[in-house]
């Protein structure tokens, strides 16, 4: 399906916006809502090792799987009955395979629809807002099993049986990312392959979280958001899309704070519509008007515009990307630097007494991945619509001949192509093989030097 998008990807626009072009239109961008519902998994048959090089370490950063809407729209009449009854075999891993013992975790949601447990006052069904669905759990397990095919079966980076301390897992302090990490690990080391060990999960409190835009800790992030909405470019988008927003909101019934002129974003509409579409549930109606297929496309298109504006086109985009993605990149790069340091001194990756750390798994959100893609300067704007179970893999390689270190970054198992700099006409790096020094040096400009200072409100 071909739709118009208010964007173009010419470098002229990306690096300097001219109001006379705005909003520019291009015809040949297809957004598939089905592509949004399900990310492409890493594919073991098309996965190619880097020539003449050894894979040392991988950072796998993922978005959670399919979920219920994260926003609560009072007039959403959908029956949200898609939530899991799932037990995680993984908790068996601290026993000898086949021997019962330890703790088996069984997650379930209450299905009874009785007034006495307030069922139906909020939503119909068995889910809470932003909950990982059964489909979402299955997506994460499928993603984990593809990871296994690539990094265990094909690359031998990790042993077929889980060895102690070879994998680190971090998730945000949100139920759906914890459940996603559990699903992922269940697919990665299925029942019987857990060895005689446990795996540690960690998460940071919100006060320290770097895996999503943390405006609680960094008020400048909200201030930048507000500044971006006041530009003439954004105002013209806003004015053009306002009457549709009012129409759609009649059906969703968001209150004044979501609909306020200073905050309105189509994301809040898309959030509900897409959850409905990804489950083939009936489109919402109110009295005689119903959401149409065109409305779904409009919500996709406008959400993509909002993301592209805030992450790329706006004059504040660089600072916004820095404050929302820089601190996480700092942690990722510290971890990579440590691996390199170990490797240089021992010709092997970081060793603990118990094993060699080979992979770090980060279970996060679209807002974990979007700042990274924006900082990487992906040239495909549709990348900003991060599908459920979407992933970035950052691989650390050592060249067997010259012993130099290279980074390869993949998005949903595919190459990431980066924009050319308008002055040099060259991309900042080829992310299919980027030497570590170039990678690290480029990212440094996005890492806040003094985050406490840079996060303060600017008067
Ligand atoms: C969009 O989809 C149409 C119909 O499937 C196809 O002909 C066209 O090549 C696609 N355009 C792009 C840019 O992929
Ligand atoms: C598993 O680990 C426990 C505790 O470290 C140890 O006592 C036991 O012998 C191990 N079992 C096997 C089969 O390695
Ligand atoms: C948007 O609409 C507001 C209120 O109607 C108006 O004041 C403003 O000039 C418009 N801005 C643009 C860029 O059209
Ligand atoms: C909100 O913005 C729209 C479009 O610019 C405008 O028509 C409307 O009057 C504004 N509403 C308020 C309450 O400012
Ligand atoms: C290795 O495993 C032992 C026993 O489980 C644990 O006490 C120790 O802290 C581990 N060492 C490291 C470096 O992780
Ligand atoms: C590895 O290093 C050798 C020697 O510098 C070079 O010829 C080769 O292209 C490098 N291979 C890769 C994949 O970088």
Automatic annotation (TrEMBL):
Give a GO molecular function annotation for the protein. Answer: phosphatase activity
What InterPro entries does the entry give?
Acid_Pase_AS, His_Pase_clade-2, His_PPase_superfam, Histidine_acid_phosphatase
Keyword terms, alphabetized: Hydrolase, Signal
Whether Hydrolase counts among this entry's keywords is: yes
Signal peptide residues are: 1-19
Hydrolase recorded as keyword:
yes
PANTHER family in UniProt: 2-PHOSPHOXYLOSE PHOSPHATASE 1, ACID PHOSPHATASE-RELATED
Q: Its family?
A: Belongs to the histidine acid phosphatase family.
Protein's name in the database: Counting factor 60
What is the originating organism of this protein? Zancudomyces culisetae
């Amino acid at each position: 399906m071909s739709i118009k998008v208010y964007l173009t990807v010419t470098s002229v626009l990306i690096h300097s916006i001219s109001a006379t072009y705005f909003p520019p239109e291009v015809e040949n961008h297809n957004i598939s809502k089905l592509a949004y519902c399900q990310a492409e998994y890493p594919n073991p048959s098309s996965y190619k090792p880097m020539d003449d090089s050894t894979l040392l370490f991988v950072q796998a950063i993922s978005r959670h799987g399919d979920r219920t809407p994260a926003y609560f729209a009072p007039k959403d009449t959908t029956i949200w009955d898609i939530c899991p009854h799932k037990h995680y075999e993984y908790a068996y891993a601290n026993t000898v395979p086949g021997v019962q013992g330890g703790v088996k975790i069984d997650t379930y949601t209450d299905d009874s629809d009785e007034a006495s447990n307030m069922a139906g006052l909020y939503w119909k069904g068995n889910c809470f807002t932003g909950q990982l669905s059964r489909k979402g759990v299955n997506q994460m397990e499928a993603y984990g099993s593809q990871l296994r095919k690539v990094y265990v079966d094909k690359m031998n980076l990790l042993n077929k049986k889980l060895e102690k301390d070879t994998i680190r897992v971090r998730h945000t302090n949100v139920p759906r990312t914890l459940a996603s990490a559990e699903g992922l690990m269940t697919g990665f080391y299925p029942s019987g392959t857990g060895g005689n060990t446990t795996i540690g999960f960690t998460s940071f409190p919100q006060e320290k979280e770097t895996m999503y835009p943390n405006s609680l800790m960094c008020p400048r992030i909200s201030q930048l958001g507000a500044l971006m909405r006041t530009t003439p470019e954004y105002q013209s988008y806003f004015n053009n899309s306002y009457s549709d927003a009012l129409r759609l909101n009649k059906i969703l019934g968001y209150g004044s704070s979501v609909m306020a002129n200073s905050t309105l974003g189509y994301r809040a509409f898309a959030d509900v519509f897409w959850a409905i579409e990804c489950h083939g549930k009936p489109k919402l109606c109110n009295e005689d008007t119903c959401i149409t297929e065109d409305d779904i496309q409009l919500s996709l298109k406008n959400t993509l515009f909002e993301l592209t504006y805030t992450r790329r086109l706006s004059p504040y985009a660089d600072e916004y990307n820095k404050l929302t993605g820089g601190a996480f990149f700092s942690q990722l790069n510290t971890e990579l630097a440590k691996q390199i340091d170990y490797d240089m001194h021992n010709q092997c990756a970081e060793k603990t007494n118990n094993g060699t750390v080979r992979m770090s798994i980060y279970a996060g959100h679209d807002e974990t991945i979007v700042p990274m893609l924006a900082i990487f300067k992906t040239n495909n704007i549709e990348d900003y619509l991060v599908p459920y179970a979407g992933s970035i893999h950052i691989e650390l390689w050592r060249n067997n001949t010259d012993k130099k270190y290279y980074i390869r970054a993949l998005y949903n198992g595919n190459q990431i192509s980066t924009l050319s700099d308008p002055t040099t006409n060259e991309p900042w790096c080829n992310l299919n093989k980027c030497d570590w020094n170039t990678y690290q040096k480029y990212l440094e400009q996005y890492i806040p030097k003094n985050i406490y200072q840079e996060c303060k409100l600017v008067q």
